[in-house]
Amino acid sequence: MNKKIQKLSDKFKALSNPIRVSILLCLLNGQSNVTKIQECLNIPQSTVSKHLGILKNAGVIEGERSGLEVIYSIVDDNVKG
């Protein structure tokens, strides 16, 4: 299978979960850390972290370390638009 097709398929899989879509909706308002996302969605931190990892692996978001925390933002322009 073509690598480009596989990457696109992985992205669709990442976007097919309601929690991950909710995380993206929170991030559309600006960069955020796990705690703020957790408060936005009212779900456990471990659940947020798990789904952030999936979105990051799919290339939809990125995390940048700032001291002890990681600030997440959307990097896929197709998701922003």
In short:
The protein is α+β, with helices and mostly antiparallel strands and 81 residues long. It has one domain (3-80): Arc Repressor Mutant, subunit A (Orthogonal Bundle).
Task: Please give a structural write-up.
- With 81 residues, the chain is of the alpha+beta class.
- It has one domain: Arc Repressor Mutant, subunit A, CATH 1.10.10.
- The chain has helices at residues 3-15, 18-27, 34-41, 45-57, 77-80; strands spanning 61-66, 69-74.
- The longest helix is centred in the first third of the chain and has 13 residues, at 3-15.
- The protein is globular, with a radius of gyration of 13 Å.
- The mean pLDDT is 94.
Essential attributes:
single chain, Arc Repressor Mutant, subunit A, two-stranded antiparallel sheet, alpha+beta, globular, about 80 residues, 5 helices
CATH topology: Arc Repressor Mutant, subunit A
Biggest sheet descriptor: 2 strands, antiparallel
Classified by CATH, the class is Mainly Alpha
CATH architecture: Orthogonal Bundle
How many β-strand runs? 2
Low-confidence stretches: none
Judging from the principal axes of the Cα atoms, what is the shape? globular
Indicate the radius of gyration in whole angstroms.
Answer: 13 Å
Number of helices: 5
Q: Helicity range of the residues?
A: 55-70%
Which structural category fits the helices and strands? Answer: alpha+beta
- As a percent range, the share of strand residues is 5-15%
Distance between the termini: 28 Å
